[in-house]
């Protein structure tokens, strides 16, 4: 099941790291929302690629929130700036409250903790990013100080506390515009992963309803901001299927919202197949069509399963105007067991983000700050540097190059012109721009040769391979120089990552990195993606211009 990843990453992995602390940054004065409201499709597109600041503000010690308790340093503006510079436009910030909530009936949240939450929010919000904050650890029985327990007999007190806490959070952020999204809770964890039970699911639905009603009436932009709610353990099947999930009503929302539009999003998580994404035994290290060792590849949870799962969310919610946010996804580093592990992690991230984009959902990568064995980390939080550029590149490629449900991305007008097809010799197909789009960052693939403009390439004297009459160039995505870097379409700019050597041995190599143009996984199927890989003489690295 999806939700069982959470405790492995939070309690088994993160506590092993050393603790460091230093807090920096200034509070940013938020202004009232005067911007136009975004529709469902607009907000998902604007959110772009997302990243989780995991194991920080939901970390705790002895029942109290403590952002350095699980081994990460205090969050800094420099880290958030690096995340934005890497291409992420949305940051999800999990938050625990626990024993920082005072006794009833007021249930006052410690002001110092709310100040710190706001400060970290402002690091991203002040840079124009979308920010998601939630109530994260308060619903886990395994966390000291937890209280949001759906099978507890004390539901009257729990619901009163829940209402009071969200009232304070929403009031604190009432002047923030639509770039701030509030999420009612995380994986509501009751210690079981089987089918949902009643009345526990009914209580989760009740929490979501209290959340929506409370936030809407808290003043300011809260009456119209986007609100995010999960089903049982953020599990896709238990949210989209007939297991008891009930969408909250939204009777207190602003009258300025058009009657035909929603302002509620649905939260799910994706860590399937678990034996690849989160199991720490090191046996299953490969995933996807590029996998080469069946003994290291899961027997389920491949691309067809991923597509079917996100299609369920599209058909059940997106098609009805409720955006879907895959609030967590990712896979752990198993390179200690398989040196090629990170290539498959990148393939997985690209597939999740591309499929989410295809079905109108936003996806937010889970980063727990742990690098190396069994970590999800993409950044070193001490030095504010990227540690997994290949996975970051894959996320950006998938987010920008996906297709929409029921069809391809919007195509740009092509101008035609001379040039020749670039044949993938081993596959008997041609280098192709998916859907004929001219969108920068679109990862290229191979398709049956058809003589179209999007398959007509020209080799220039400056070593560029251009398409659309020279308007766009073959490009190593984000100037990547590592095996697994996506090959995409981009405005021609003369950069070394757009210079290619068409060699007599049939290979096309990047002048910048020396890596070979490669059809992922030696696939011969339409839609097989093209990337850079170490030259190996394989048939999937043989190309012919013309």
Automatic annotation (TrEMBL):
Entry-linked CDD domains: beta-trefoil_Ricin_XLN-like (cd23418)
Superkingdom, natural source: Bacteria
PROSITE patterns reported for this sequence: RICIN_B_LECTIN (PS50231)
Leader sequence residues: 1-32
Residues in coiled coil: none
Entry GO CC: cell surface; extracellular region
Keywords: Carbohydrate metabolism, Cellulose degradation, Glycosidase, Hydrolase, Polysaccharide degradation, Signal
Residues in Ricin B lectin domain copies: 416-546
InterPro entries the UniProt entry points to: GH, Glyco_hydro_5, Glycosyl_hydrolase_5, Ricin_B-like_lectins, Ricin_B_lectin
The keyword Protein biosynthesis is annotated on this UniProt entry: no
One GO biological process term: cellulose catabolic process
Gene Ontology molecular function terms on file: beta-glucosidase activity
Family designation: Belongs to the glycosyl hydrolase 5 (cellulase A) family.
Official protein name in the record: Cellulase family glycosylhydrolase
Natural source organism: Actinacidiphila bryophytorum
